[in-house]
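ESCALATION

Customer reports they have been waiting on this structure for their group meeting. Please prioritize. Original submission:
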Amino acid sequence: MAKEKPTNPEKEAKKLAKAEKKAKRSETDGVHKPKSVKKDKKEKKTAAAASDREVTTMLLNTLVETKPGSVAIKEEDGDVKVKVKLEPLLGALVPFANPLADEKAGKKVLKSVKKATKNKSLKRGVKEVVKSLRKSSTAAATAGDGEPPAIVILAADISPMDVISHIPVLCEDHGVPYIYVTSRVELGAAASTNRPTSVVMITQEAVGKKKGGGEAGDEDFKEVYRDLVKVVSKASKDVRI
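Update from on-call: job pushed to the front of the queue and completed.
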């Protein structure tokens, strides 16, 4: 009769612990889960993803309705960030901001600033604009073709207001028309600078270019300049007292 091998309690305990650990791993990681359970889990994930997309789409649509011009940007890591178009705070405008461009006229003015930047017909900042105004003739309010030699665009949300308060007087003394826009940030962006800009001057002729240079973009810019003169003239007629 064969003798039974003596059991080692320590080995038996190790086996039991290993079996329990394997059972727990099966429960948490789904190692031995049936296919039906895996399928249900996959379907739940798909449904959750679809629900998230619907909610995101609804929020983006609401944002576009309430903040026109806002856009959703998908980044490389898959995250979606929303760039909200901020409207200027009209309550922060200086009290003497007349004539003030409305939304439609403001877009035309800023577009003209962008064109002037490309045509090298733009002067930025208080110091440069004041210097140009003082150099201009007080006798000749307009250029030879009946249009002003320059137009000044000021930001109405500047603080302190003393920074630009003297410029309108200089403009009037030298026969240079001017107009206010609501945002110094937008004015700076249109002038191709990352910093907010309080004032710019658009000149009829490109800076440093001889008259009658005959470059290809001259005619296009002249048309833009004429349109800007009309916008400023119209705004000046509607000035508030």
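Sent to customer with the following note: The chain has a mean pLDDT of 78.
Escalation resolved.
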